Amino acid sequence: MRHDDCIFCKIANGEIPSATIYEDDDFRAFLDLNPATRGHALLVPKDHFANLFELDEEHAQKAILLAKKLGTRMKKELGCDGLNLIQNNGEAAGQTVFHFHMHLIPRYRDDEAGI
Ligand code: 5GP
Ligand code: ZN
């Protein structure tokens, strides 16, 4: 279920290198190319789903559990003060890469992330 013309399929499956912070059989999390804050990461399934509307329940459950696990790790390791989970679906909502992904954005007191 990999799409030849999808950049996140290639990153998730290791065909394009990325700054990976987590990997298992079904998901990869890696640093965003254009980070809103220090440690901004993207969590993506290895299978291709365009967005939340297409995501199956198993991946949806796993994504939120991983967001909790990785967010907790970020708090410990980066010392962030907060965390934004952001997930855009469809062009109208600001989605630019059409492979489901969840933004994990560590927040620091007085950071100036324009989110
Ligand atoms: P969206 O607007 O679709 O929710 O977010 C797409 C995100 O993917 C953006 O934050 C953008 O910086 C990031 N991004 C786009 N292409 C690449 C890439 O090739 N590598 C990485 N690491 N991040 C990317
Ligand atoms: Zn894809």
TrEMBL record:
This is HIT family protein. A motif (Histidine triad motif) lies at residues 99-103. Residues 7-114 form the HIT domain. It comes from the Bacteria.
